[in-house]
Amino acid sequence: MLATSIRNSSIESVKRVPAIVVPASMVAAFLFCLFAILTFLLPPRAAKLGYFAALSDKHHLLEVAHSPKIIFIGGSNLAFGLDSSLIEAKFHRPVVNMGLCAPFGLRYLLEEVKDNITPGDTIVLVPEYYILQDMAGKRINFTKTSIEVTNGPEGFVDGSPDLIRAVEVYPRSVLFILRAHLSSPHAAFKLLQTLHRCFIAKWAAVYSMVMAMLHGLPDPYNQWEVSAQIGTAARYCFNKNGDYFGHFNRPNVVNSAHWELFGPMNREAEGLLNCFGKWASSRGVDVVLIPPPVPPDYFIPSKSSDGSISAWTHGQLDVPVLADPRRYVLPTKNFFEPPYHLNISGRNLRTNMIAADLDHYFSGRSSKGN
What we know:
four-stranded parallel sheet; two-stranded antiparallel sheet; 12 helices; alpha/beta; globular
């Protein structure tokens, strides 16, 4: 009986020990975070002297520029095709060219500048068309690569796997990504979708790196590390305003393919631009939008009528649009790499056009003020 009593006492003491129950959601969150950290830390990583590393330098330029300043926001169409010094000389204001990579997504591009905007600044939005319009299921054929747009009807509004590179070269980008996507449950869900694609892309890059090593080939992940023409690290091919010059004196890339179909602005992109405009206006900051440069065959006649081009913004965009998209249709000879990258002559032509549009806008603002 003594043995039975001891055994029953032991069983009762075991029963009294509180069970530690870890919710499945916490386990999933922990594994997700661990997987994310490992994914971002694994090689290959964006080169410290590569093209994407300029993101860190552009943020430094933005931080030190005094106001009132002019900030250009967009993708690589701005990096390759803007002479900021000309804008700076005409308007006697510091100019910062934040353009680098459109596939970072519209949410990210708008969010990353907010910490360094002050009253009196002017923000010039020049996003590529494909981050503003419905692109689901469409294929964009660039020079040597093909991008399948698969992150839903919003196209590149929420970004792409290139966000990995933003985090690798400028870790503070994590803050911008979270801030931009935690504003609503819908945006948070889209972030999960984008991160899923990022993880797949990173592991595919790991595989490609290993295969390249086995075959004695260069790592394709950092193919933009050096400007082949001048033998200089791509990060050092940006001037004091954030303009890229690594493509100067290189022959134009010939490509006759159609890259994307022009279409109306996505409703979600429209809403994001309007919200950003209101946010900036409440802080005494002007926001305007200028269409990006494209070659003549960009607007396919059978798909892009005069009516559809004129109705590009549905008439619902509150941000002033300073020009019709057709104004920035430039001759093919002005493109280094269609559909958005200009050569030197195209860069000069386009910059003067932007200067004229901004001059008209500022003049109108002054006359209204008087």
